[in-house]
Design brief:
2 copies of one chain form a homodimer.
Chain A (H helix, E strand, L loop, with lengths): L5 H23 L8 E5 L5 H14 L4 E5 L8 H8 L5 E4 L5 H4 L2 H20 L5 E5 L1 H6 L5 H9 L6 E5 L5 H6 L2 E9 L15
Amino acid sequence: MTESSGDQHAKHNARMKRVQAARAKMQARRTIERGLLIVHTGNGKGKSSSAFGMAIRSLGWGMKVAVVQYVKGSWETGEKNFFQANPDLLTFEVMGDGFTWDTQDRAQDIAAAKAAWERSKELIMNPEYDFIILDELNIVLRDDTLDIGEIAEFLKQRPLEKHICITGRNAKPELIEMADLVTEFEEVKHPFKAGFKAQKGVEY
Amino acid sequence: MTESSGDQHAKHNARMKRVQAARAKMQARRTIERGLLIVHTGNGKGKSSSAFGMAIRSLGWGMKVAVVQYVKGSWETGEKNFFQANPDLLTFEVMGDGFTWDTQDRAQDIAAAKAAWERSKELIMNPEYDFIILDELNIVLRDDTLDIGEIAEFLKQRPLEKHICITGRNAKPELIEMADLVTEFEEVKHPFKAGFKAQKGVEY
């Protein structure tokens, strides 16, 4: 970085003033306020952790948050440890029973997913909650463990005053179509491929 | 979803057993364990919230976490509210002073960014900390408010027992090159474009 002269600073500051004005104009056009249907998908890392980060943001505004985890039931995870050690913070329910390659029992997977979805509907309909995270729901939809038709139908009728965030790779097109905010998490570089083990705090 | 027959279930379960075996083999090849240099970049939403979610994971494992926010100083955010209301959880330092289009003072931006970087170096070198988040550092690097050369040089010598996560769009190629884990957050659908205001708990 070269030392900026006073001239360069004045130019920069004038440009920033124009950017600020343009942003103010843009923001004035954004008037809709209601709960968002959010989808985190893609093959990259960070879909669930980003949802947990939004939970922290929401808690910081005094909102009430619930998480339903669809597929990590049998694992010990940092988020499970944290939220179970701080039960006053939010409602955290682990309904799945590990990934299906651990259970190897499709009938049991379907039963667990159905129970998780019933609980999710209750939480979505409960006016106390402002933010609902359905973690890895996309995975059980992708595998047809739950039926996308039924879930899309329910979400169309959802109460619009709360946010719902659905995570997991391979989100169904029906869900992307109806969502307000969709981010694709794209893997650029992953430590697994360089021979790293899954790391505490990062992967789980 | 059609009712699965016993045959279909048996087939599924056998396939899952093969997947499980393949995964076990793959995991056995992953032997490296050390702190990761993580970069969250791209134009999509979720880069910072994903870092905060990893903070939650790390806290769940009893790790010590520090966050330095480079550019959100003057804003009220959910994460600031939450971490300041729960000061025992982690070290949270807000060093930036709003985005540059709010300050319109490049000299002040440079001074604030330099102070944030000095503090970041202390936290990285402090053996007490296991996870350091440098939130929106990419932005001040993109704008040459800080010099990528100096920062890359320091990061090459970093202590390898801790994770460092750097967020912000337009990550410098030098940083992507040296990182262990890079995710590109790609915007698929953003509510701003449909006329939504920034929503509490989601955007801030």
